[in-house]
Design a protein that fits this description.
single chain, alpha/beta, 4 domains
Length: 328
């Protein structure tokens, strides 16, 4: 190759013509298909890679064949680069997603804690792999408002009064007491006269003297008189009346009263106080133990397990106004 640099162009072209003629004579006496070694293919591919125009000078092989050799070498190179090497096994995709979900749902947990939970679930994965797939956070790990409110909801109850007309056009008063933790109805009372001492006794019977809530949310109805306020303070409950004309501050109780009206008393003609008490107690059992709620991930206030075996039976509630489905 160094000697070719000092030769004249005429001599080089003459030598090229002689070599090409010799190749043509050789092709007439050789079989149509020639055998090439790997080194021959590598030389042709290398020359084509460096000087693409040299492909026009090929005579014993087609240009498409050289291009195919180049593509095959490209595939072989990257197949070798991306082959699976010895080392740690690949963590499955579902486990990686689980690690990320656990780290997002528990911002106070680190890789050792998440790794311990995975071991208890029967998932054998290294702690360094858990740290690798844990979600990265920019700020400090802190709880959200949703978690903060749920932490304080178990110690809060709400109460409210609602009116129900009877068949004789008399008005009966219903007293609702519910817990904020799982929206459970703690008490449903009925009376013809809403007095402060009666409301105080209902609250005492609903919560008792030992397991009393910490906070009580109510409106500023005149029925909650001085006797009621003294009873609440003596039990140790912190009374928190809502602002005037602000029913949204006691939204859980207002929403539950609406459910009682839409799902129960609006479809029933009430005969009297005893009848209304029986209907409300039946609805309370249905609401706490059977009815599913969107806010509880479609579960009941008293957790209701899934039944997967047995025959499905239907049990009417409130005379067929609602039904309960279960397996036996």
């Amino acid at each position: 190759m160094l000697a070719l640099l000092f030769r004249s162009r005429v001599s080089l072209e003459a030598e090229i013509l002689v070599l090409r003629h010799q190749l043509n004579i050789q092709r007439r006496h050789l079989p149509k298909r020639l055998a090439f070694s790997d080194m021959d293919r590598l030389i042709f591919v290398g020359l084509y890679r460096l000087v693409p125009n040299t492909i026009k000078a090929l005579t014993i092989v087609k240009p498409e064949t050289v291009i195919g050799w180049h593509r095959a070498g490209f595939s072989l190179y990257w197949r070798r680069k991306s082959r699976r090497r010895c080392g740690r096994p690949i963590v499955p995709l579902e486990i990686r997603r689980l690690i990320r979900e656990v780290s997002i749902a528990n911002p106070l947990w680190g890789a050792p804690r998440i790794h311990g939970e995975l071991l208890k679930l029967g998932i054998d994965v290294g702690q360094t792999s858990v740290a690798k797939y844990t979600a990265r956070r920019r700020g400090s790990p802190s709880q959200g408002w949703k978690t903060f409110l749920r932490d304080h909801a178990d110690g809060m109850v709400a109460m409210d009064l609602f009116v129900v007309p009877t068949i004789s056009f008399r008005l009966l008063y219903g007293l609702l007491i519910m817990g904020h933790g799982r929206r459970q109805i703690l008490w449903l009372g009925v009376t013809a006269y809403s007095r402060a001492d009666w409301i105080a006794n209902q609250l005492t019977e609903a919560s008792g003297w030992e397991q009393t809530p910490r906070y009580l949310i109510r409106d500023r109805d005149r029925a909650y008189g001085e006797i009621f306020v003294r009873r609440v303070r003596s039990i140790g409950i912190r009374d928190r009346p809502t602002s005037p004309r602000s029913p949204w501050q006691n939204a859980y109780a207002e929403r539950l009263i609406g459910s009682i009206r839409r799902e129960c008393v609006d479809h029933i003609v009430v005969f009297g106080e005893r009848h209304l008490r029986h209907v409300q107690l039946s609805y309370m059992d249905y609401y706490n133990a059977t009815r599913t709620h969107l806010s509880l991930n479609k579960d009941a206030p008293l957790p209701r397990g899934a039944e997967r075996a047995g025959t499905i039976v239907c049990r009417p509630i409130l005379g067929g106004l609602h039904h309960q489905y279960a397996r036996i």
